[in-house]
Amino acid sequence: MTFEAYTCIRRDAQGREVALRGRSIGPSAGRPIVMLASLGRPGSDFDEIATCLAKTGYRVTLPEPRGIDGSSGPMEELTLHDLAADVAAVIESQCRPPVTLLGHAFGNRLTRMTAADYPALVSRIVLLACGGRIEIPEKARDALVGCFNRDLSPEEHLEWVRYGFFAEGNDPAVWREGWHGEAMLMQSSAVRRTPVEEWWEAGGQPMLVVQATEDAIALPANAHDLKARLGARVTLVELAHAGHAMLPEQPERIVDIIQDYLAQT
């Protein structure tokens, strides 16, 4: 089973071209899942879990954000609403909506924004590392910024990756690469320009939240806040021995959690 590349072209509200590239895997008639990656990270972060889900019959689509792997378009003065329009264009052109929309870390914000702005395209939501309301501790914020600092030595860079993204004892070397600074700056600006209240509760769809117990950036208090606010609409599952990266740390367990949840909804 192999990934299939696609290109989706849309025009923004000012008539400017946005080219959105990505890959899909799994049977074309399979139940559709769209996965949105972490801050400044590529869709390939999901390759292992996407392949596992595709083998069980799901059709998984991995869009690349502007600035990564050929996706392009204006990069300044954007909001999460603009980036949600990118996701909606991919869903409409590449999938059979409504889809399960999954977001990891920054992608959890964009997932909720897309679900709020385009509720007819999204049937359910899966959030991995769902930060955004509880303040990130100072050292963890320094680690997040440090991951994109090209002036660091390889050893210094890997130490920031370890501290910010990986649970104690897990190997951060698998995320040594894949840090896209231009995309990170664009996405960070879009978050700052969008009030959290516009995306925090999403669009009313049922929601699975997978919370790593050792996440130093998206603190568990965020997931507990969401559960307290939305009650039965949220299914909360805690993931032991995983940090903010989560995907390379516990891929088999994440696949099992997603499959169990989707089988019941």
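Above is the first protein from milestone M3; the second protein from the same milestone is given next.
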Amino acid sequence: MNFQTLGELAKLAEERGIGIGSLMLEEQSAESGRPKELEFAKMADYYEVMKDAVRRGLTDNTTSPSGLTGLDAQRVKSYSESDEPCLGGAASEAMAYALAVSEVNASMGRIIATPTAGSCGIIPGVFISCQERFGWDDQKMVYGLFTAGAIGYVIANNSFVSGAEGGCQAEVGSAIGMAAAALTELRGGTPAQVVHAVGLALKNTLGLICDPVGGLVEIPCIVRNGFGAVTALAAADMALAGVRSVIPSDEVIQVMLEVGSAMPEKHRETAGGGLAQTPTGRQIMNDLKRSK
């Protein structure tokens, strides 16, 4: 890739006079040696999987094998359709869709890790709800996925996207930043605004620990995906309104690396701390062990 930081990414897009999604497609094709058409078709296939996961999460029985989670997306969707949700309809829909994909993951369904399975609901939740809302076609959404991929590439190579390495800030935080950036570009934002969206999103999740109850990617992972989709919408709106990340986004990524590296091991996907070690969390873990 001809960029390693978000600053370099935005500068390159501006110099070439194209969006970050188009730039990432060119860079991916050059790196892989495969035609752009082939790379685009591959990403389009991924988007179909995301759409199917949303559909199944809203219609199928998503009760997980542990029995701990499932069907919350359908509860949120039903509530938002029958009452006046506090968030408003658009944000509630994004939240429901994000929960749907995350519940499909927990129930052993097919998802796309974006960037991880633990954060798989955020990008589909934002993308598919906004596609329906604004009437965008699939081609536009696939370019959006390349935008998200460019952001994920920078984060992964300068910090981390794994909860085991950097806590949930690395998984859910990165996914929120990727979704916010892509949505900003999809709504007509400049490369500079796209980059600001990343910093705005990541600053709101710094220090978030990874504390899965029973060691399963269910509690609190699924609800964090729902909240994450809403945060991505907010970060995109701020960036599009002209709000800047006063601390440059590349520096925010470095802070995420610093915070994650200093995070105790028990707060990095070991189920050794946080919610996993509350009295209820320990009881759930004991019950799961006995059921095996």
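Note on the second protein: The mean pLDDT is 97.
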